[in-house]
Design brief:
The model has no long low-confidence stretch (mean pLDDT 85). This protein has a domain at 2-45. With 68 residues, the chain is of the alpha+beta class. It is built from 2 helices and 2 strands.
Length: 68
Amino acid sequence: MLALRTKGMGSAWTTLTLHREQEMAALLGIPYEDVTQAGLFPVAHTVGTTFRPADRVASGATIHWNGW
């Protein structure tokens, strides 16, 4: 990710597509029968060059253990 940033590009790890792994494989031309997806790593050019940390909510407000 840091190397991509030096080239004006960005990326993100994603596993959201895994619940539809077979459909993503067909869409992207990934062999499905003998390949297991562990995640996708999309890469794209970024808009602008002013990167900063994202606003974060305190984890205690969003993380729950054994209940809500």
